[in-house]
Write a structure and sequence with these properties.
With 58 residues, the protein is an all-alpha fold. The protein has two helices and no strands. The protein has one domain. The longest helix is centred in the N-terminal third of the chain and has 18 residues. This is Peptidase M20 dimerisation domain-containing protein.
């Protein structure tokens, strides 16, 4: 079964990714830029999810 992604949903995801790229730039593992990108995603998910956690790793 093929699922059609609406233009609205596609634009929404593109905008989130563009925000991460613009605000964080390249993100090496465990870098401050990666942490900032994770925080952007967390803030976005908190608008629709009850609980959102960032799990640390090194």
């Amino acid at each position: 079964m093929k699922i059609k992604i609406s233009d609205e949903d596609s634009d929404y995801m593109y905008n989130i990714l563009q925000t991460i790229i613009d605000e964080c730039g390249p993100r090496m593992p465990c870098s401050p830029q990666e942490a900032k990108g994770a925080e952007i995603v967390k803030n976005e998910l908190e608008e629709t999810c009850d609980i959102v956690d960032i799990e640390p790793f090194s």
